[in-house]
Specification:
Order of helices and strands: EEHHHHHHHHHHHHHHHHH
CATH architecture: Up-down Bundle
Largest sheet: 2 strands, antiparallel
Distance between the termini: 19 Å
CATH superfamily: MFS general substrate transporter like domains
Number of domains: 1
Helix content: over 70%
Strand order of the largest sheet: 1-2
Amino acid sequence: MSIQSIVVIELRGIDNRNVTQPIASNSRSMLAADRGAFRSLRIRNFRLYFFGQICSITGNNAQTIAIGWLILQLTGSGTMLGLVTAAQFLPLLVLSPLLGSLIDRFSKRYILMITQLLGFLVATTLWVITAAGRASAWEVCALALVLGAVNAIDNPTRQTLIREMVGSKLLLNAAALNNVLMGVARIAGPGIAGVVIAVWGIPHCFFLNAVSFLVILAALAMMTNSRRPSSVSRSNSRSLRSGFRYAASTPDVRWGLILMALVGTFTYEFWVTLPILVKDVFGQGSSGYAAIMMVMSVGSVAGGLLLAARLSVRRAQLGRATMAFGVTTIAVGISPTIEISFVTVLLMGGAYSAFVAVSSSTFQLSIDEQFQGRVMALWTSAFVGSTAIGGPIMGWIAQYYGARSALVSGGLVAIAAAWLASSSMHTQGIKTDSRTTPSYQASR
């Protein structure tokens, strides 16, 4: 959203009733006083969402591990496992840009309630067919495709709902805390899945994930609408064509999407190359890989907490965060021993967390609010959906040229993308040193 002349934020009293009030330019003292890494959790809606998400995302991570084990048990084929993974990401690449207009048109909270209900039905179906011993690889693949289609609208809706709940002033803090949540879920989810699979079996992972959807559904139901319905016309201004035209004609949005597509396709695919590095280069088994992933998640949580303490972010920091992500990815790729890789992976986890939070918040704050759903759907397609393309490419590089080459090349792409986007923005007169938090001016 471009910086507006009037900024309205929500103030919640002790009784948690919502009050909206214009804030004048002399309210800097209020902004300075509102400090603390967890300050956005003071907002009731975001607090409900945050703790509901902890359960839901942990359950999703446990289900992802269970799906992988189930496919390997049914087929023993790495190719089939790759197809199931692609089925979960391909809809985000293809469908997200087409569904973005729904986010701008309808209540984001209601959209999420529908997607969580659909996710609950997918998890329940997986539980029923696996418990009955009737699951086939193609049925699991089909359900993964359905889940990917649900995530195609769920993922960008989550991004935009966070801004709607906390406002522009707290968006960076909320985005950073959201990454902390993801890091915690990446630690807890696989751990819970391992215990549940070993003690009770794969079907119980799907059952637990179904229960976790009920938690986030309850949290969404308890939330109140935090913003009045938009008065923007629902005709041409909400069309797909106008969203694409806006993204293409706005330089900082256009170059931001290019940067996210490059990083998402090549650098973000460390999820594919790290297991190969651990197995083929360091000669470690599943325990070594689990340790690496846990260290990276700890770094992600630490990076998110450090970023959450900041009050604002500058556009130039997106370039620096991208550079840091690229450099630390290269450092992981050239680590001579697994002991040293623990240090570099820790740093990479922090850099990755900072990159995602900074990119999401700066991107949302630089776009017009009426196009937010459509543009964030493009962001999701560029960054997350590109895994459907980048995963096989980086897997091929790792297979034929080694995991080190894949990680180093991914890091170099991030550095080049940051340089390209920054230099292009300078050429077109975009001020990369300007703050992306809103300016506070007298109401008119």
